[in-house]
Amino acid sequence: MKPNLLGLSRDKMKALFFELGEKPFRAQQVMQWIHQRGVLDLNDMTDISKVLRGKLEQLVEIKAPNVVADYPSEDGSHKWVIEVASGSRVEMVFIPEGSRGTLCVSSQAGCSLDCGFCATGKQGWNSNLTVAEIAGQVWLARAQIDGFNGAAQRRISNVVMMGMGEPLMNFEPVMDAVSLMMDDWAYGLSKRKVTISTSGVVPAIRRMKEYTDASLAVSLHAPNDELRSRIMPINKKYPIADLIDAVKEYMASLKDKRVPVIEYTVIKGVNDHRQHARELAELLRTLPCKINLIPFNPFSLSDYRRPSDSVIRNFRVILQRAGFTVTVRTTRADDIGAACGQLVGDVEDLTRRQERYARRAEAMQNEVPEYYGQSGIERAQILASTGKAATSADDTLVLGS
Ligand code: SAH
Ligand code: SF4
Q: How far apart are CA 320 and CA 268, in angstroms?
C-alpha cells in the first residue's frame, strides 16, 4: 500500500524526501499544502517541480477519510461519521463554545477495554485507526468548519482524543497524529489545547514523555480500586496507585507548568455518594489536577442512570471545599448521540463482545424471564433471589452498589 502523505509526521515526511534525494524544505512545502491549504492533489502544488510531482505520484497517495454521514445538533454541535480502511465507521464531533470550539477525535473503531458505562466499549473492538485517519479528522473538520483560507480566527481551537477508542491502545499512530496537530507546518495547535484522554494504560503513559508533550486527561471515575475495577476492567491490571504514579511522572516531564484533568463520570447510585467525593479528594491530595465531572450520558444498552443536578452539585462542592478546581461538563449533542460515551459508529466486533452480550441476554431471558424490563436494582434482586451470580460488569455493579 502506498503511504498516505496526510498521515506522515514531520520526521517521516523529511525522511521520505531524504530518500528521494530532496531537500528538507520540500517536506515543509508539502505539509503546508496538505494541512494548511487543504490541497490533496499533487498537481495543484505549484511550487513543487513537475519531475518531483511525477515521482511522488508513483510512490504515495494523499487521501482524506471518507465522510459517510453528518448530523447537525440543535445546540450547534456537529457529528460526522467517517469510514475507515477496515470498513468500520467511526465518529467525530465538533462542539462550539462561543467563537471557538473543541473537536473530539476517535482513535479506534470500537474499544477493547469494556468500561461498563461506555457505549463504545459495549461494541467491542474492530481496528486501530491509521495516522491519516486520526489526523485526517482534523483535516476534515478544518475543511467543513473553518475552510483552508488562512482565517485568522479559527473555530477549531482544541482537539481532544475523547472520541471512540482508547488512544493509548493505538500508541504510535496516535503519537504521530498528535504531533501533526501541534506541528507549525501542519495544524499548529498549542500543546495546551491538544489533550489525550486515557482510561489508564499505565505502561503507555510512562512511554508518552518520549513522544509528546500534549496535555493529559485521565478517566478515573472511582476513588478506590474495588469500585474502579468493577466499572473499568483495566483497573485490575493497572490499579489506581500505579496510574497516579505514571501521571505524576508524565506531568513532571513537561517543561511548562500544567496539570492533568481528572475525568469522573458521575453515575447514579454507583460512584455519586458524598463519601465517594471525600475519598476522591483524599486520593488526589498529592496530585495537582483539575477535576471534570461528567454527568453520565445514558444509551440504550445501559441500565445506568444520571444523578440529579443536586447530587452532582453536592459532589462538586465537597471537592471544591477540599481545594480542587472542578468543572461540570455540560451535556452537548445528545440529540444526535454524540455526547461523551455515546459514540458508536458502525463496528464489526472482532472481540465478540457484542455476541457475548447478546448470548447472555438470550440466556437470561430464557432462564429468568422477569429479569428483563426491570430496573437495575430490581434486576439485582431477581438475580439474588434466583441465586444467579453476576455475569457482567453491569450486574456486578448493581449487586455491589
Ligand atoms: N478511551 C478514552 C477516551 C474516550 S472516552 C478514555 O476512556 O478516557 C471519553 C470520556 O467519556 C472518558 O472520560 C469516558 O470515561 C467518558 N464516558 C464514557 N462513557 C460515558 C457515558 N456514558 N457518559 C459520560 N461519560 C462517558
Ligand atoms: Fe474504551 Fe474509553 Fe469507552 Fe473505556 S471509556 S470502553 S477506555 S472508549
A: 20
